[in-house]
Design a protein that fits this description.
By secondary structure, this protein is α/β, with parallel strands linked by helices. It has two domains: 1-44 and 92-163 and 250-335, FAD/NAD(P)-binding domain (3-Layer(bba) Sandwich); 49-90 and 165-248, D-Amino Acid Oxidase, Chain A, domain 2 (2-Layer Sandwich). It has helices at residues 15-26, 52-58, 93-106, 152-156, 215-232, 279-298, 306-332, 337-344, and strands spanning 4-11, 31-34, 49-51, 65-75, 81-91, 110-112, 115-120, 126-130, 135-145, 164-174, 180-184, 193-199, 202-208, 236-249, 257-258, 261-263. The strands form two sheets. Strands 1, 2, 6, 7, 8, 9, 15 and 16 form an eight-stranded mixed sheet that branches. Helix 1 packs parallel to helix 6. The N and C termini lie far apart (58 Å). The structure holds flavin-adenine dinucleotide.
Length: 349
């Protein structure tokens, strides 16, 4: 089979992959994105909060925004807590991912849906497999792995973000509109937290925490108890309208460049190890990966790819490493919940 060639093959059409595609296509690259899902952004695996300043930087309008929020309230088991300004937007995450992909397509990037990057050959070519079973060989000059927390591309580099936190979420009807997000901390939520994020007339109610055995199944009973508690305090009503879940990386990789492969977003652990927020960093690091890949091709110098590591580390390295350290303390000292939680959770800063 003759390989299909392209400048840059991007694996995964989440925020990191589509942002890389936008940047590289703008720089005149021949870009191909493969996405295993038949529909971009579906199912949503996200609590759908993004910080307000980020939306301004995107230059994509606000078609995906559901509502504004102004503050984040953190609530402890005894009902006490704290409040901090956290201006942001609750979004339709599927529409957000689709808007990014549409922008990349408008700029000339090719997208193949229902197509999985299956294998990398010794020659550095990538075998892609369509849902129909048809396979093709792609011969890219550079690969960007933006394939999420269980990145196959990362495994080709013999690395992985193995430290993953399971998270599950229900959509429930809100009893009254809310203009803030709520975070619930409890000794029962080992190394994690519960959340109530308003989304118009509904709310995303979820729980992400460490759980060694049967991760997603294991935390569901605790989420159900948490939902019951919110029902009793009259925040939500009725039965869940839908549910979702996923894994959240809890540790950034040391580096994200391996030969002609760049990793971006959850694939590189570009996710805040304490809060689990990753959309903003996925977009930012995706853009950087796309730009350095294009620069390296234009200047015929793969050595330039190492600048991607310098740039994302410069911008996010300290924050991610510090949060990673806080996570370590949290997990080690969790039995002393009352003493440590205020120094580890961002709301008490
Ligand atoms: C329950 C939950 C709640 C969250 N809430 C928030 C929040 O409120 N705010 C926030 O900022 N972050 C949140 N996050 C984190 C955020 O969703 C991620 O950090 C973000 O999606 C990372 O984007 P990405 O592009 O790196 O990866 P993804 O969005 O995971 O995209 C990766 C894409 O790659 C595709 N893919 C995977 N393997 C292959 C393959 N072999 N071939 C082809 N395609 C492949 C996948 O189908 C997927 O579409 C949450 C995460 C979870 C699980």
């Amino acid at each position: 089979m003759k390989p299909v060639t392209c400048d840059i093959l991007i694996i995964g059409a989440g925020p990191a992959g589509s942002s890389a595609a936008i940047t590289a296509a703008k720089m005149g690259m021949d870009v191909l994105v493969v996405e295993q899902r038949p529909e971009i952004g579906v199912p949503v695996q996200c609590a759908e909060y993004i910080p307000a300043p980020f939306v301004g930087q995107l230059n994509m309008g606000t078609g995906f925004v559901v509502q504004k929020v102004s503050k984040m309230r953190t609530i402890l088991p005894d009902g006490s807590g704290t409040e901090m300004a956290a201006p942001g937007f609750m979004i339709h995450r599927d529409r957000f991912d689709q808007a990014l992909a549409e922008k990349a397509i408008d700029l000339g990037a090719g997208f193949l849906l229902s197509t999985k990057a299956a294998k990398r050959t010794e020659k550095g070519q990538v075998i892609i497999k369509k849902a129909s079973g048809e396979t093709r060989i792609i011969g890219p000059r550079i690969i960007i792995g933006a394939d999420g927390p269980r990145s196959r591309t990362a495994s080709w580099c013999a690395v992985s973000t193995r430290d993953l936190l399971p998270a599950i979420q229900y959509s429930l009807r809100l009893r009254a509109p809310m203009d803030h997000t709520e975070i619930y901390l409890s000794p029962e939520f080992y190394g994690g937290y519960g959340w109530l994020f308003p989304k118009g007339e509904t709310a995303n109610v979820g729980l992400g925490m460490k759980h060694r055995n049967a991760p997603l199944k294991g935390i569901r009973p605790l989420l159900l108890e948490f939902v019951e508690q919110l029902r009793k305090t009259d925040k939500i009503e009725g039965q869940p309208l839908g549910s979702t879940g996923g894994m959240i990386p809890a540790a950034p990789l040391e580096k994200a460049v391996y030969g002609n492969i760049l990793l971006a977003g959850d694939a590189a652990g570009h996710t805040h190890p304490v809060t689990g927020a990753g959309v903003f960093t996925a977009v930012s690091c995706g853009r950087m990966a796309g730009r350095w890949a294009a620069e390296a091709i234009k200047k015929k110098n793969l050595g330039l790819l190492s600048k991607y590591d310098h740039e994302w580390r410069d911008l996010f390295g300290r924050t991610l490493d510090r949060a990673r350290e806080k996570r370590r303390i949290m997990e080690r000292e969790w039995t002393r919940f009352d003493q440590i939680i205020k120094s580890c959770w961002i709301g008490f800063r």
